[in-house]
Amino acid sequence: MEPIRSTLQKNLDSVHQQISAACQRSGRQAGEVQVVAVTKYAEPAWFLELAKLHPTFGENRPQQLADRQQQLPHIRWHLIGQLQRNKVNLALRHASMIHSIDSIRLLEAIRAASDAIGFKPSILLQVNLSGEATKSGFSPIELIQSWPDILRISSGLPIEGLMTMAAESDDPESARPVFRGLRELRDTLSQRPDSIESGLKLPQLSMGMSGDFLTAVEEGATLVRIGSRLFSGLETSPS
User: Fold this and answer.
1) Residue 127 backbone phi and psi in degrees, to 5
2) How many whole angstroms separate alpha carbon 25 and alpha carbon 22?
3) Interval 200-219 mean pLDDT
4) Among the residues of the chain, which ranges form H helices?
5) C-alpha to C-alpha distance for 38 and 230, rounded to whole angstroms
6) Can you give the pLDDT at residue 239?
7) On the chain, which terminus has fewer CB atoms closer than 10 Å, C or N?
8) What's the pLDDT at 2?
9) The whole model's pTM is what?
10) Which helix (H) or strand (E) holds 54?
11) Rg of the chain over CA atoms, in angstroms?
12) pLDDT tops 70 at residue 29
């Protein structure tokens, strides 16, 4: 297992070094940014070794997250993919943070389930800033208009911030307006009198993946979701 671990350590160190440089460029502290290691396409041997080096993982599907969380209960597992209402109980029991709350109906389902079972992971509201029909999430206007209802429904739930995904592109700079827009939207929402009265500060911004995470960090990301960069150089076992 040592070759796998050494490759993972090298990749992890490289990502952290690049984050530190991006933070320095933007006047931030590297400790403000947390890497969520996305294990969707990782082989078991890879994420089991990575778990010895890194504490926070992300999965796209609730069932796979639940299975892997039981394998690695000491890891902080984040659900970063779309969540259907019939999977809410499963997600609440196994995720420490859910990044993908994309509708009022889903937020209502989470509130009801969390009250019933007593599990309350941290929550991020997903915003579709790229305008792509294939992406889920509140539009910025929808989120602002729905904000009083969100505050009412989410009373007692730990809403920590916002999440977005930029459009796929070979140019990380093309994602900058999306990431900047999420930060500005967060600032607008957190400074509203009703947010201040409720104590909602929205400190977390989940944005940026393997191809554009440095741009995201420069624009204020506190959570970056990185998969392929961490597992680069590892060979897939033949099936």
Assistant:
1) -120, 130
2) 5
3) 97
4) 2-25, 44-50, 62-71, 88-94, 104-117, 140-153, 176-190, 193-198, 213-218, 228-231
5) 9
6) 44
7) C
8) 64
9) 0.94
10) none
11) 18
12) yes
Q: Which amino acid, one-letter code, is at 125?
A: L
Task: Count other C-beta atoms under 10 Å from residue 172's C-beta.
Answer: 17
75 DSSP assignment: S
Residue entry with tokens 């990749």: 11
Distances (CA, A) of 167 to 36, 73, 163: 19, 33, 14
Only one residue has tokens 């506190």, namely 222
Residue type, 48: L
Q: Which residues contact 128 (CB under 8 A, 6 or more apart)?
A: 102, 135, 136, 137, 138, 139, 164
Kindly report which listed range (49-58, 125-134, 187-196) carries the lowest average pLDDT score: 125-134
Q: What percent of the chain is predicted at pLDDT more than 70?
A: 97
Q: Domains of the chain, with CATH numbers?
A: 2-226 (3.20.20.10)
Pull the structure tokens for residue 25: 């460029």
